[in-house]
Amino acid sequence: MDNPAYQEEFRDEMLNGKITLMSPRPAVNHSRVIGNIFYAFMKYLSGKTCEPFADGTDVYLTEKDRVIPDVMIICKREIIKRDGVHGVPDLIVEVLSHGTEKKDRGYKKDLYERCGVQEYWIVDTVNQSVEVYLLKDKKFVLDEIYQVFPDYVELSEKEREEYKSEVPVSLYEDFSIPLEDIFRNLF
Question: 125-153, pLDDT tens digit by residue?
Fold first, then answer.
């Protein structure tokens, strides 16, 4: 069905000076996870200094790098301008897509580390996992991988005791998000 009034808006990022088209329509699970994380951030941060943003906001990190993270938290309000964020977010979440995994785990992860992002999450909707990287001594260190285990996976007593069902947000001591909330309603 062609509708001349409807035109697909192609979004792009600039990575190392090269324009890269983004996927115009994310999959349903990708969108749901972004919404679930943003909702948890929005609910907790209401009335606080830091502010969450969902997919669609340009972040100008360097002269050669402009990205559009899936979700982020900004605590320095002075870097928020009309046309986007001009500076470094405190926390960035990238939800993996078929075509973005290499960039999210490679160039973008290195870029976020170089620029000083304090916390970086890589979310995998297929494996229902969240990798959390924290910046320590100007380097990302894998803090933890949080994962939902399917019902058919039997965990030992020790594994059940060690299982972490909530993802902490390092910016606040009392803020964590249950994995079941992050991966709610997925296909």
Answer: 999 999 999 999 999 999 999 999 877 78
- C-alpha span between 138 and 145 (Å, rounded): 20
Residues in Cβ contact with 74 at an 8 Å cutoff, skipping those fewer than 6 apart: 50, 51, 52, 53, 80, 85, 89, 90
Question: Contact at 8 Å (CB) between 68 and 57?
Answer: yes
| Helix, strand, coil % over all residues of the chain, rounded to 5 | 25, 35, 45
Q: Label residue 52 left, alpha or beta by phi (over 0 means left) and psi (-120 to 50 means alpha).
A: beta
Short-list 103, 89, 106, 96, CA closest to 33:
96
pTM of the model: 0.91
Average predicted confidence (pLDDT) for the chain: 92
Q: CA-CA distance, 124 to 101, in Å (whole number)? A: 9
Which residue(s) pair with 53 in the sheet?
Answer: 72
In sequence order, the β-bridge partners of residue 86 are 60
3-state secondary structure (DSSP) of residue 84: strand
Instruction: Determine the length of the chain.
Output: 187
Residue 140's contacts (CB-CB under 8 Å, 6 or more residues apart) are 109, 112, 113, 120, 133, 134
